[in-house]
Input
Amino acid sequence: QLQLVESGGGLVQPGGSLRLSCAASGFNLDHTAIGWFRQAPGKEREGVSCISSSAGITNYANSVKGRFTISRDNAKSTVYLQMNSLKPEDTAVYYCAADPSYGATCLTTGRVHVSDYDYWGQGTQVTVSS
Output
């Protein structure tokens, strides 16, 4: 069964850091693109970052570039999102998503789009507040 489970969210002060984890069971991560998305109350879900299958090419939204880092541990079937210098506007529910088609997802510079992914986790809350 293909399943994604996010963890690592919580409450952090502005300027702080969190590391989110996405445990991907049933997937071959070397053949799967993983994306991180977030959704704040009253707003649409937006792409944050992604990592492609195989080559591990990464993309980031302009709003998080230089602050967030996506990485992958195939042996643990887990993808991480390291979030540094957090701002109140980063507050949202964060979701990971998977495209196991071994295709071109996340190979287009700057593209992190909801429509490219077929499987979704349940989300983890990140709150940045003093």
